[in-house]
Amino acid sequence: APVLAVLTRAPSSGGKTRLFAALRVPPDTHLLTALLLDTLDGAAAPGVHRVVAVTPASACDVVRSMVGDAEVIAQPEGDLGVRMRATMAALLAGGAPAVVVIGSDLPHITPAVIVEACVRVSGDPGALVLGPARDGGYYLIAASRVPDVFSGITWGGARVLTQTEQAAVADGYRVYHLPMMTDVDTP
User: Fold this and answer.
1) Which of 142, 135, 164 is nearest to 152 (CA)?
2) pTM of the prediction?
């Protein structure tokens, strides 16, 4: 089955620094947990195996107790690109015919978005699906082989989507877009 990988920081370890700085409050574990669980629920597509990739690795058991039937694995150390690439590579090496990677800050995501990404990349090694985010990044990336699009990207910047598209085309991919969505990075 295709795999949906939700990359998350354990709610107890903070995260969403831009959001909490703008709100002028310390990181709220309840809000971070709610974002993760809402994202998992919204992305529960039929026939798609859900995996939660957690950092730090020491929090896997705690996150496992929160997420029900979703598989929980540790993320490797490194920047966002290293972590996304390694997670996608491990899942594809484990037999997944396609992998969709999202963050844990998409409470409005729907199963239809996940299904559309899976359908587009399943059986087409030349397809790369991106879900553009309103801030110039992307909320979703999907492929059936590991693309060379995770290095040389200015993570968190307004050109993440553009830089990723350029890298994908240079790597021989046809890039497809899903509808634009807002992830929760700021109020």
Assistant:
1) 164
2) 0.95
